[in-house]
Design a protein that fits this description.
By secondary structure, the protein is an alpha+beta fold. The protein is built from eight helices and seven strands, in the order H-H-E-H-E-E-H-H-H-E-E-E-H-H-E. The radius of gyration is 17 Å and the shape is globular.
Length: 199
């Protein structure tokens, strides 16, 4: 598959620098996501094995979003994806270093309201953006003619001293927490792709 469209981080930089509200930023990001889906999505794989093989060779629509990944990591399960470097990592680091705790980024993050008692499963706005784009792209992929794939965020750690783990989903897929922590020592992000058995 020829990958032409990439995430343009300059769009995110401009929106953050302008201090746009969270919902406006996400509307713009979703437009980018829809463009990528229209250009690369809706691919139909015969079965889950064909899709996972294509994913391991970096030739699926999802690889437009995450260009540096490892699959088939020992002990992690064949549907677990380990991201070597988040697409938004350098931009978020740059903006943070430019203004310390960048007030505009902080304002945007505070604009994302979580329900009371709910923990954030993202480190920064770039992390949240990537999760939304992955879900869009994964949901656009067919297996056996059906849109049955789903994104499951497991955890992220960009080497900033912050780490988030989605404990509920880690337990739900029966992944060992110690293994996930070891993976997050090496990778920026770890997620899984769920699918119907028998596909």
């Amino acid at each position: 598959m020829e990958v032409e469209k990439r995430i343009d981080v300059t769009v995110v930089r401009k929106l953050l620098e302008e201090g746009k509200p969270f919902n406006v930023i996400m509307q713009e990001i979703m437009k980018i996501g829809h463009e990528i889906v229209e250009q690369h999505g809706h691919v139909d794989y015969q079965n889950i094995d064909e899709f996972l093989e294509a994913l391991s060779t970096h030739s699926t629509p999802l690889n437009v979003i995450d260009r540096e990944i490892d699959t088939n990591v020992e002990g992690a399960g064949r549907n677990v994806v380990c991201v070597k470097q988040c697409t938004m990592k350098d931009l978020m680091k740059e903006m943070s270093e430019a203004g310390g705790d960048d007030a505009k980024v902080t304002t945007v993050m505070q604009g994302h309201q979580l329900r009371e008692g709910e923990e954030s499963n993202f480190i920064d706005i770039g992390c949240y953006i990537m999760q939304q784009l992955r879900q869009m792209m994964i949901s656009s992929i067919k297996v056996g003619g059906q849109y049955d794939l789903n994104y499951i965020h497991l955890g992220c750690d960009k080497g900033t001293g912050k780490r988030t783990v989605n404990k509920g989903d880690v337990e739900a897929i029966h992944m060992d927490q110690e293994l996930l922590n070891k993976l997050l020592d090496k990778y920026d992000c770890v997620y899984a792709i769920s699918y119907k058995e028998g596909q």
